[in-house]
Amino acid sequence: LVRAWVRSLGVRATLSNCSNNYGPWQHIEKFIPRQITNILDGRRPKVYGSGANVRDWIHVDDHSAAVWRILETGRLGETYLVGADNERSNIEVVTTLLRLMGRPADELDWVEDRAGHDLRYAIDPSRIRSELGWTPRYSDFEQGLADTIDWYRAHEDWWRGQKAATEAAYAAQGQ
């Protein structure tokens, strides 16, 4: 629809599509914050299905920087794909979190996969890099995760009140 408005009505717009975000301030219902807060609570993290679902993870600060770059220098009417080349399976993410938080890699629970859960989301960010010169600052996914863990540890007052309701909603779905 936006592309049509650009072509037909001269609307000045750019578009961006992004891979999965992680980092500070993300609601604890999302995959990475849920696992971190479960581990902080002494609960076992949950992995859907076989854990083989793959996502390209991007730190929220990198996503914001990419959108800013697109706004400043992107060509009107163009679409830019934003990714950080951090493709990981869900089981890889969870075992990395467990290791970074000093817990055994097998200290997790397997839950039924979500209906319609896509096996892989992939992004080709080559255009934003070649045309706009943008690159992610958090190219080291583990360091980004470590920083995110530290943020959730330091901001328990922000997420604590939401945790019980979030887990109750997941439990009602069998997850």
Radius of gyration: 18 Å
Shape, principal axes of CA atoms: elongated
The unreliable regions are: none
SSE run: HEEHEEHEEHEHHH
* Number of contiguous helices: 7
**Extended strand count:** 7
Give the DSSP E fraction (strand runs of 2 or more residues). 5-15%
Strand order of the largest sheet: 2-4-6
User: What is the SS-derived class?
Assistant: alpha/beta
Distance between the termini: 36 Å
Largest sheet data: 3 strands, mixed
Binned, the helix content reads 40-55%
Q: Would you tell me the overall average pLDDT?
A: 94
In short:
By secondary structure, this protein is an alpha/beta fold. Helices cover 46% and strands 15% of the residues. It is built from seven helices and seven strands; from the N terminus they run αββαββαββαβααα.
Commentary on this structure:
With 175 residues, the chain is of the alpha/beta class. It is built from seven helices and seven strands, in the order H-E-E-H-E-E-H-E-E-H-E-H-H-H. The protein has helices at 2-9, 31-40, 60-73, 90-100, 126-132, 141-154, 156-172; strands at residues 15-18, 20-22, 46-48, 54-59, 79-82, 87-89, 109-111. It has a three-stranded mixed β-sheet. Helix 2 (31-40) runs parallel beside helix 4 and helix 2 crosses helix 6 (141-154). The chain is elongated. The mean pLDDT is 94.
